[in-house]
Specification:
By secondary structure, the protein is α/β, with parallel strands linked by helices. It has a single domain, classed as 5'-nuclease (Rossmann fold). The chain is built from 8 helices and 7 strands. Helix 4 packs parallel to helix 5. The longest helix is centred in the middle third of the chain and has 19 residues. It is globular, with a radius of gyration of 17 Å. The protein starts with 5 loop residues before the first strand and ends with a helix. The C terminus is likely disordered.
Length: 187
């Protein structure tokens, strides 16, 4: 029997803020390739996807800086053979950005992978409980959804909804950070 194929779906904003809680949020030095291998083991990786709201510049220095940083992140993700899926950022009246469309893109890809039998195992790096209906449908179709949780903020609802849970700790994540000089050489 061939090994189960795996896909990884990362909610980028959720991932960043969970790493930031651990003071590990240097995404441009994060080794996404090794991270994927640590999650799936020897299973063949069908696809690794990173979901995030696209930054649009509005002429301000802040949005230009965010835009430039996001372009560097996309280059870094491509180097690690990740694809990225874009929602958008909406600025409210107070100037605070909110992601839109990211969770929908993630849910659609989760369901497509299940309904089109693209993989047998889906590793979900997100604590968004809005995804639970999509997770339930994917599992009804026979896909095993693994909730990849951060030990400092585990969602009990997602633990219950998914067939398996893998927990990340600060200690398990530190090895994925490369020294700054080494990381910038590859960009």
């Amino acid at each position: 029997m061939p090994p189960e194929r795996a896909s990884i779906l990362i909610d980028g904003s959720n991932f960043y803020f969970k790493l930031r809680d651990l003071n590990l949020h240097q995404l441009l030095t994060f080794n996404f390739s090794q991270f994927a291998t640590s999650l799936i083991g020897k299973r063949p990786l069908v696809q690794a996807s990173y979901y995030v709201g696209a930054v649009r510049t509005d002429g301000t220095a802040k949005t230009q800086q965010l835009f430039n940083h996001q372009r560097q992140l996309f280059a870094h993700l491509r180097k690690h053979k990740y694809i990225y899926s874009l929602g958008y950022l909406l600025k409210d009246r107070k100037g605070v950005f909110h992601e839109k469309g990211v969770d929908v893109n993630l849910a659609v890809d989760l369901l497509v992978a299940s309904y089109e039998h693209l993989c047998e195992r889906l590793y979900l790096v997100s604590s968004d409980t809005d995804l639970i209906p999509a997770i339930a449908k994917a599992q009804e179709k026979g896909t095993t959804v693994i909730y990849v949780a951060f030990s400092h903020q585990v969602s009990k609802a997602l633990v219950s909804a998914c067939k398996e849970t893998q927990t990340l700790t600060k200690e398990t994540l530190v090895p994925f950070l490369q020294p700054q000089e080494q990381a910038t050489e590859h960009l």
